[in-house]
């Protein structure tokens, strides 16, 4: 039986349209899911939309729609972008689906039966955009400490979750599991937050309607974060704990942006502890993208539309750029200039050129038919080792979710290939009939190394990998079995490759 692997993205709010930030998290999850599948795992990859709450209700009113009409419309935009970005999710959950509502009600009841939910009264400062209550001391000039927008004082009857009860258990868990919160800097941030003390958390609202009713008291709707976080288990069939739930829970990794770390590492694990369920194995918070040096915002009109980028530069160039440009976990800046520079240097020059050069030479010297390699020289051995070692290194980088380092490692093999050609100078060998066997060996090494490169690249750039492997005479899709040196067979017919990534001459706009 294949080992199981479960990866999730946040479920995105439907009051905003998909932008590069959403595309980034979903893409990272996709690359991880594809890599794990390549390595023989049975992967459950979940994404979806967060459709309840006051923000969505307000946006719908402003658009003259019902919240569900708004959700239906915007959800399709997410789905269509995922299709264009070649996202390979297993499931797409919407919080308005019956399966989800049923699971949330069950989770709420379970925690209530345990005595960890009680009815009380709430009075505090509320930030509507963030759907978060703050104490007066947390406010900065009476503004939300997260988004700097005005807050309002609200008093309402509310159900509370006894989060305070789980403070020690949570700290113990974080301390015993160094990998639970990543990157490390974020882990320290959460430890100090929890050590300051956890208050009980208001988990219901009476001031609006658009949500899941609290079981047994439909004056209240379930707080949007209790509702949203539970998606990670309702998609697996919870409250049914057999089937997918038994197979995939606890999740291997929740991928999120740094903005929602606290919800995932404080609220969510304590909800789960109260429900008697295992907590996530890992939560990884990536950094924040700015656009041409500025904060992404609709009013600034500087939101880079992912559909437009894909149309203009191609899906694999966008996939490559987002994961290569910025180490996963750090903040980064998106600019057209940087994207074009990466396409021209990494994709057109290094990757594409190597395939183009080497397949053209095979055509010229051996009529496009791969020959049996002869004796291995030191130079050949070094090139082979560099290629084979990259397999292990990439695997290690995937364990750390260091996507950018994985790509860097693959590019070191590509650069070694270009350097190898320059050093062995096949065009000189070709002039001497006695060097025919040496020339055959050199050609074999160049092409075999690239077969492994494209196999490793398949998680990042599925289309490019398929094309590259196709040029190298491989009809089968990339597989883990392919990550062994020496599988290219003598006699394979190899066509001259077209430019995989034509250079972009235009100036950055
Ligand atoms: O928070 N840079 O949904 P959301 C990088 N519904 N990533 C970004 C980004 C940026 N500038 N902007 C957004 C919610 N993201 C809740 C989640 S989960 C149970 C509920 C990405 O639509 C990043 O992944 O506001 C961030 O965490 C997510 O979008 C927030 O999406």
Low-confidence stretches: none
> End-to-end distance, in Å?
51 Å
Instruction: Assess the beta-strand content as a share of residues.
Output: 5-15%
- Rg estimate, integer Å: 26 Å
The largest beta-sheet arranges its strands as 3-2-1-12-13-7
Describe it.
The chain has 509 residues and is α/β, with parallel strands linked by helices. The chain has a domain of 140 residues: Orthogonal Bundle (Isoleucyl-tRNA Synthetase, Domain 1). 48% of the residues lie in helices and 15% in strands. The protein is built from 18 helices and 15 strands. The protein has a six-stranded parallel sheet with strand order 3-2-1-12-13-7, sandwiched between helices. β1, α1 and β2 form a beta-alpha-beta unit. α12 crosses α13 and α14 packs parallel to α17. The mean pLDDT is 95. Ligand ME8 binds next to β1, α1, α7 and β12. The site of ligand ME8 has 20 residues, from β1, α1, α7 and β12.
């Amino acid at each position: 039986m294949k080992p199981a692997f479960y990866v999730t993205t946040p479920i995105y709010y439907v009051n905003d349209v998909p932008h590069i930030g959403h595309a980034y998290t979903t893409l990272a999850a996709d690359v991880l899911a594809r890599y794990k599948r390549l390595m023989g795992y049975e992967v459950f990859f979940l994404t979806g939309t967060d459709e309840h709450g006051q923000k969505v209700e307000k946006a719908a009113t402003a658009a003259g729609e019902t919240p569900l009409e708004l959700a239906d419309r915007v959800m399709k935009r997410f789905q269509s972008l995922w299709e264009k970005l070649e996202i390979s999710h297993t499931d797409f959950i919407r919080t308005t689906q019956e399966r989800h509502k049923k699971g949330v009600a069950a989770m709420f009841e379970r925690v209530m039966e345990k005595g960890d939910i009680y009815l009380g009264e709430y009075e505090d400062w509320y930030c509507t955009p963030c759907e978060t209550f703050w104490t007066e001391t947390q406010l900065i000039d009476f503004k939300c400490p997260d988004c700097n927008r005005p807050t309002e004082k609200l008093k309402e009857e509310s159900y509370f979750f006894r989060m305070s009860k789980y403070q020690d258990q949570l700290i113990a868990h974080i301390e015993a599991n160094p990998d639970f919160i990543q990157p490390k800097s974020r882990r320290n941030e959460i430890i100090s937050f929890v050590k300051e003390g956890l208050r009980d958390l208001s988990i219901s609202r009476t001031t609006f309607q658009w949500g899941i009713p609290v079981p047994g008291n439909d004056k209240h709707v379930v707080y949007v974060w209790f509702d949203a976080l539970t998606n990670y288990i309702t998609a697996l069939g919870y409250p049914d704990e057999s089937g997918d739930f038994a197979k995939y829970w606890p999740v291997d990794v929740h991928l999120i942006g740094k903005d929602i770390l606290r919800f995932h590492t404080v609220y969510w694990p304590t909800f789960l502890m109260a429900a008697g369920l295992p907590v996530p194995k890992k939560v990884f918070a990536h950094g924040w993208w700015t656009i041409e040096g500025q904060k992404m915002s609709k009013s600034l009109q500087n939101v880079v539309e992912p559909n437009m980028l894909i149309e203009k530069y191609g899906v694999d160039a966008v996939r490559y750029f987002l994961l290569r440009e910025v180490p996963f976990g750090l903040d980064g800046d998106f600019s057209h200039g940087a994207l074009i520079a990466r396409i021209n240097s990494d994709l057109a020059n290094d990757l594409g050129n190597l395939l183009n050069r080497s397949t053209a030479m095979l055509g010229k010297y051996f009529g496009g038919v791969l020959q049996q390699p002869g004796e291995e020289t030191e130079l050949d051995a070094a090139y082979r080792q560099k290629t084979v070692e990259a397999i292990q290194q990439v695997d290690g980088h995937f364990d750390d979710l260091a996507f950018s380092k994985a790509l860097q490692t693959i590019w070191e093999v590509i650069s070694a290939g270009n350097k190898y050609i320059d050093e062995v100078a096949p065009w000189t060998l070709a002039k001497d009939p006695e060097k025919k066997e040496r020339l055959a060996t050199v050609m074999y090494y160049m092409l075999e190394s690239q077969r492994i490169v494209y196999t490793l690249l398949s998680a990042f750039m599925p289309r490019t990998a398929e094309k590259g492997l196709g040029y190298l005479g491989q009809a089968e899709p990339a597989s883990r079995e392919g990550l062994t040196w020496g599988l290219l067979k003598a006699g394979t017919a190899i066509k001259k490759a077209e430019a995989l990534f034509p250079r972009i001459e235009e100036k950055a706009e």
